[in-house]
Amino acid sequence: MYQYDGHDQAFVAARAAEFRDQVARRLAGQLSEDEFKPLRLKNGLYLQLHAYMLRVAIPYGVLSSGQMRTLAHLADNYDRGYGHFTTRQNIQYNWTELKDVPDMLDILAEAGMHAIQTSGNCIRNVTTDAFAGAAGDEEVDPRATCELLRQWSSLHPEFAFLPRKFKIAVIGAAEDRAAMKFHDIGLRAKPDVQRPRYDIWVGGGQGRTPRVAQLFEADVPFERLLPTLDAMMRVYNLHGRRDNKYKARIKILVAEMGLDAYRDEVYADMAERDPAAFAVAGKEYDRIAAFFDRGPVAPIDDVPVAGEGAFAEWLDQNVSAHKVPGHAVVTISLKAKGAIPGDATGEEMRLVADLADDYSAGEIRVTHRQNLVLPFVPQSALATLYGRLVEAGLATGNVGLTSDIISCPGLDYCALATARSIPIAQALSDRLREREAKARAAGVTVKGPTLNISGCINACGHHHAANIGILGLTKAEEESYQITLGGRADGGAAVGEILGPGFTAEEVPDAVEKIIEAWEANRLEGESFTDAYQRLGKAVFKAAVYEEAPRVAA
Amino acid sequence: MWLLETDGSFTRDDDIATGLEIPGEAPPAERPADPVVTIRFGGAMDGRGFSTANRLRAEGYDGRLIAAGPLMPDQARHAFQSGFDAVLVSDAQVQRQGEDAWRNAIHRSVQELYMPEPGSRGPERGIWAARHAD
């Protein structure tokens, strides 16, 4: 993985010192709360319902074991013993105190980490495929591009007070495991002679106006990548709407201007500029790429691994093919039966760090589905690793199943939420794990629809992009959960359709179960949920859910 | 009024030449011929003035560019790194935000970025350039 040099180290230390000064000026009254707000947000510090929340960047989801132990230390000493991994591959601490945050940032800086631009109207943490550098279908390792963009966008002078937040994702494989087309800008890296070339997508996003990104330009050579992004950002900064925060994302600008007009503005801006200013980026890309080219593991003999019972389920669901022979990619589910999706205790983080040292070249990933990954595990170590995960209660074999739920923190923590998310996720997890266990015991191949939950229309829980999406709203002072069907976050990205009237919290598990039963009853052999939904249409599911009144649990 | 220069000097003067004043919302259709141009920001959260300055520099404007409006000391480096030569600060701003905060605005900010902006008047040299100097 990428290693900080003295420049990177000095950069994050300087940023931590700058923020310490900003906090001191806020406490002294020299900065008003209105002035301090954008400054703290640019450093990931939110004021939530109960306390300040600090969101720490995990650039493109890559962590060393030592960095994971630092995160565990922060959880134990500055929070209530846990942290929450997010859909943008970051971690957030829910119970921090303002006066402690500068110390937390110093501790992070020592570990080569930061909270730069994890919030605010600026370019956010760049996300990617959690299997980068390990996936069997990878064409270009996207991490070098991500690190280049991290450096370029960090503390960018011109693009720090944008109309709204700005999210970039990069992928380099045929399969999209990063929901790339739901980002403000999405990049698909492809192999070329020396450095990659890129398809640039623009205008995707979720929130209250979900949009799938459109192709801005295909096959952009590396030399034109940063000049193009620079001009794309500038046109957005100058023309994006600032009169209404719900219409301020680039997806609205592109929709209102039209893609062609937006493109013309971008090329006009580029035409005035000397791209030589960006020439050094090529050498920097090569320097960064060298860290990733030296893969941490060498090919060894393939070892067939098979098991029974829960071990077999775990092998089927949580273990994926690796590009280096003799190895496997292991996903550790943070979605045990009844668990809070994405939460991990300090103790669990330390255990995962130890496992990474013992079996995965000291490296860990965070996935956008809020799980953890050990990316470089020898096949011969899988049985031992599984045993240690069982002891720690981290061996749930449900990755890719419906109980592998994405959920935002919702009204239990978030100041923006309109309904609770976590209790809904927990109730669904209980119900779905039982179904999955029964199906498996009956010898049925279980591969369920994806299920994501958001506690408000801002859609941090990615409900629009789920096969089954659940959105918590408040109607007449009561929580009401709207269900959407048919969304997809993969290469065939699509926004889900609203099924019908909302449900109470208690009704949601029954409604979801009826949807899954309707799919199972009507699907062709091997047909995925979204293919079946496309073929059958909404009516079949609507009838299944609404024809009799949903049973209400006592 | 006070003026913060790129060298960090911060002085009060009742008679500051601000030249042609334009709003930060959009770059002017034609490059100004005036030797001094002041770009007024509509608000601290409105970053369009930074892009307007950057665009003027890209178009070849080489006169003096002054940033004005309700900016914070923390935004001084953004201004200099986007092509401004100075930041105009009102007496009321200085009184509330602290003279010391403005006087130290540059050296308390992160000074060296990875890539300097074209047209930058900022203090940084650029980490990428330093890494690949030969």
Can you characterise this structure?
The complex is a heterodimer of chains A (554) and B (134). With 554 residues, chain A is α+β, with helices and mostly antiparallel strands. Chain A is built from 16 helices and 20 strands. Chain A is globular and about 65 Å long. In chain B, β5, α2 and β6 form a beta-alpha-beta unit. With 134 residues, chain B is an alpha/beta fold. The longest helix of chain B has 11 residues. Chain B has one domain. Chain B has a six-stranded mixed β-sheet with strand order 2-1-6-5-4-3. Chains A and B meet through α1, α2, α6 and α9 of A and α1, α2 and α6 of B.
Write a concise synopsis of the structure shown:
Chain B: InterPro entries: UCP030820 (IPR008318). The complex is a heterodimer of chains A (554) and B (134). Chain A is built from 16 helices and 20 strands.
The CATH homology group name of the largest domain in chain A: Sulfite Reductase Hemoprotein, domain 1
Succession of helices and strands of chain B = EEEEHEHEHHHH
Give the CATH class of the largest domain in chain A. Alpha Beta
Adjacency order of strands in the biggest sheet of chain B:
2-1-6-5-4-3
Helix vs. strand class of chain A? alpha+beta
Instruction: Report Rg of chain A.
Output: 23 Å
The averaged pLDDT of chain B comes out at 93
